[in-house]
Amino acid sequence: MPVAESSQCMAALAKANRIRLARAALKRRVRSGQVTVESLLTVGSPIPPEAESMTIAELLGCQVRWGETKVRKYLAALSIGGHVALANLTDRQRKLILEGPAEPERKRPPARLDGPRLLAWLEERRLLSEDVRVSSKTFKGRFQRWRRGASVTLDTADHTLLTLGLHLSELPPHLYLSGEQA
Fold first, then answer.
1. Residue 75: which CATH number?
2. Which terminus of the chain is less hemmed in, N or C, by CB atoms within 10 Å?
3. Is the pTM value of this prediction over 0.90?
4. What phi, psi does 134 have (nearest 5°)?
5. How far are the Cα atoms of 1, 18, 20, 34, 114 from residue 26, in angstroms, in the given order?
6. Is 83 among the domain residues?
């Protein structure tokens, strides 16, 4: 290898090593809270040279309690790839990352049915013949739990009712548990 090429390689290795050490120091400062992600991503603020080629996933991942999964889900919710270098982030992407994804709508807990009442209602209508009760371990176990007082999710009730040729809309309101009981 000619002398010029070897000195060029040595210079490149030295530069890469300086950047690696500076990036490791930056990650430690972010982890300790001395530097915030917000300060690095604020629109209009310069990105330190050692962080220009750092990916957004790398930066977010060096925060306390931010692992690969949390970073991946966070960026996926924003439709931003984790492989994007900080220097290549657009102003819009920076704002999105700083604002975070919109809070998902909280789902209400599913309504539940009173197991013993549902079972009594089905028996009153003579919908539970002996062969239905013992037709499968699933139904047998279900009916035993309901008799002991277990509440019933709508999915389970729907599956059972469909098997019996019924629909949830046919159930009377008194079979549903109130919010406190569910």
1. 1.10.8.50
2. N
3. no
4. -110, 10
5. 36, 12, 10, 9, 57
6. yes
